[in-house]
Amino acid sequence: MAYSIRAFRDEDAQALSALALAAIRVVGARGYSKQQVEAWSARHGGAAMYRERAAQGHAVFVAVDDTDCPVAYALLEPDGHLDRLYNHPDHTRRGLAAALLQAAEDHARGKGIERLYTEASELARPAFERAGYGVTHRRDFTIEGPNGAVPIHNYAMEKRLKARTTTP
Q1: Whole-angstrom distance, CA of residue 70 vs CA of residue 90
Q2: What does the alpha-carbon distance between residue 109 and residue 84 come to, in Å, rounded to a whole number?
């Protein structure tokens, strides 16, 4: 199957919401407890969130299959915060996370952003590390779930971008 990366379109919103929830529930279950996955899923915004974020100037990079169906995405805020990186469970381990992180980095460089940073899940951490991000610290906190507060963790990570030099 061939994949490509393109910019977000309003009609992608529902598909991105569904694929993020599938990733949290299926892939997330490989590194987090059932209670943690339930609480994480409950915090996920719906389709309207994607349209709102894009309208606010956030860059949303969408990986699509050969039928133009979204299968993964990354959301980069104007200050260099990579807020989201999700792959649909049926499309993991195909290089999509790396391609999306590269698209976000290229965009950031073009905007003069010198630092990318994120809060990576236990499962996303290796993809970020392969892309050159370093862990600054583990974040242990609680989130509200259907049955009360649930302890969870992720990793604060960052990548410094060097200015590209041009040779005359």
Answers
A1: 12
A2: 18
Which of 152, 157, 110 has its CA nearest to residue 130? 157
SS3 for 89-118 is HHHCCCCHHHHHHHHHHHHHHHCCCCEEEE
Length of the chain: 168
At residue 164's C-alpha, the angle toward residues 64 and 100, to 5°, is 15
Q: Are strands 115-120 and 134-145 parallel, antiparallel or unpaired?
A: unpaired
Report the distance separating Cα 95 and Cα 114, nearest Å: 24
* pLDDT for the residue numbered 164: 60
> For the segment 28-83, what is each residue's pLDDT rounded down to a tens digit?
889 899 999 899 888 887 899 999 999 999 999 999 999 999 999 999 999 999 99
pLDDT for residue 134 is more than 80: yes
Q: Is 104 helix (H, G, I), strand (E, B) or coil?
A: helix
Question: What is this structure's pTM?
Answer: 0.91
In angstroms, the CA 26 to CA 30 distance is 7
Please give the angle made by the CA atoms of 59, 153 and 107, to the nearest 5 degrees.
15
Structure tokens at 71: 């299968």
133 vs 96: CA distance, rounded Å: 17
